[in-house]
Design brief:
- The protein has helices at 48-66, 71-76, 107-120, 175-185, 226-237, 271-292, 296-309, 314-326, 330-344, 350-356; strands spanning 2-8, 28-29, 80-88, 94-101, 128-130, 133-149, 153-156, 159-162, 170-171, 199-207, 213-220, 243-244, 246-248, 251-253, 255-263.
- By secondary structure, it is an alpha+beta fold.
- The protein has three domains: 2-149, no CATH class; 153-266; 272-356, Tetratricopeptide repeat domain (Serine Threonine Protein Phosphatase 5, Tetratricopeptide repeat, Alpha Horseshoe), CATH 1.25.40.
- Strands 1, 2, 3, 4, 5 and 6 form a six-stranded mixed sheet that branches. It has a three-stranded antiparallel sheet with strand order 11-10-15, covered by helices on one side.
- A hairpin with a 5-residue loop joins strand 3 (80-88) and strand 4.
- Helix 6 packs antiparallel against helix 7 and helix 8 packs antiparallel against helix 9 (330-344).
- The longest helix is centred in the last third of the chain and has 22 residues, at 271-292.
- The protein is elongated, with a radius of gyration of 26 Å.
- The protein starts with a strand and ends with a helix.
């Protein structure tokens, strides 16, 4: 397992342009008396040096909060420093954003995307100055992409969640006991019978060392709606005190657990739809097994059958989209993953979509 550390170095190139115009100076300067600054540090009575150091910290925070290590670069171990060049205009906007030095695997494109995001977000820099007047200034921004060994935990919304254990998180009595418990607790919302709504809601639980429980995320693969979300959340929260906490290096640690809750309508008029849904799930499972065993076309054919029965099932779309992605069929993968994202409202594939949906 590897994690991402993103570093930032700030700098300006050395040569500078040598002409001026009497009416409006359109020269792009590379050396100025006062270099451009990221905004948010123009405090009264602060020195220029203090403002510059503050601006560098704010810029670093913006980059780290918005940048993603590209999947291809991460998988292939590409790392290094990308240098993005741009002009800070006199109104503080950025123009002529380009790559001076690249790193393979999409790192350069990702760095450019984040720099361009400043314009999209309406962020205005403090322009560079020469002889006391704002001027157009070239700015070179090195962004370092580096892979390092990951710690045994990650942070999710301020919580430490362990991903490595000596003993994993377990429901008391095992998986069958959890399945039996959910079967008793989960009630199908009566409101769904009119439309025979059917599908799954996945919940990621965080179980603390003291056995407290918090819901980290909820994914509705079939756009079932609020009544189903409430029912799933109520059942999941009811597992409080029913867990054997995970252990790492001899102590209890917080860990996550994924729970899948199926909803099937109870009205007699929905019987055929329930049977079709069960058949679609069997087809999807068969398709996944065939694909993973090397029978790719046969596997996708099964997934096609499942999706033909339930075209708005995000889980099926994600399965087929990933299969297409593995075959480098990017237009097909884009269509499936994008549609699935819109249904389930998740951002799992956003980095990939930026590449394959061009």
């Amino acid at each position: 397992m590897k994690n991402v550390l993103l570093g930032l170095l700030l700098g300006l190139s050395l040569p500078w342009a040598a002409w001026t115009q009497a009416a409006k100076d359109t020269t792009v300067y590379k050396v100025v008396d006062e270099i451009p600054r990221f905004p948010g540090c123009e405090f009264p009575d602060s020195t220029l040096d203090a403002r510059q150091r503050c601006a560098e910290r704010r810029l670093l925070e913006f980059i780290n909060q918005n940048i993603e290590y590209p999947l291809e670069a991460r998988q292939k171990g590409h790392e290094g420093t990308v240098v993005v060049s741009f002009i800070v205009e006199t109104d503080g906007s950025l123009s002529r954003i380009s790559i001076l030095r690249n790193v393979e695997g999409g790192c350069g494109d990702e760095a450019v995307r984040v720099v361009s995001l400043m314009n999209t977000a309406g962020i205005k820099w403090i322009p560079g100055k020469k002889a006391g007047k704002p001027v157009r200034t070239q700015f070179n921004l090195p962004v370092k992409f580096k892979l390092e060994e990951a710690p045994p935990y990650i942070f999710i919304e301020g919580d430490t969640v362990y991903t490595e254990f000596d003993a994993p998180l377990e429901f008391l009595g095992g998986e069958q006991a959890l399945s039996d418990y959910l079967g008793k607790m989960v009630k199908y919302p009566v409101s769904g019978n009119a439309k025979c709504l059917i599908g799954e809601v996945d919940i990621q639980l965080l179980v603390y060392p003291d056995n407290d429980v918090r819901i980290l995320s909820m994914t509705d693969f079939n756009d079932l709606g609020f009544d189903f979300w409430w029912e799933a959340a109520h059942a999941a929260a009811g597992t409080l005190g029913k867990w054997k906490p995970a252990q790492f290096q001899g102590r209890n640690v917080p860990a996550a657990y994924d729970v899948s809750i199926a909803f099937k309508p109870t009205a007699a008029s929905c019987k055929q739809r329930v049977e079709a849904y069960d058949r679609a799930n069997r087809l999807a499972e068969e398709g996944e097994k065939l694909y993973n065993s090397g029978q790719q076309e046969a596997g996708i054919a099964k997934l096609n059958e499942a999706i033909a029965l339930f075209p708005d099932n995000a889980a099926f779309l994600f399965m087929r989209g990933q299969a297409y992605l593995n075959q480098n069929k990017f237009p097909e993968a884009c269509a499936d993953l994008l549609k699935g994202r819109q249904i389930a409202m998740v951002n799992w594939f956003d980095n990939i979509l930026r590449v394959i949906c061009r």
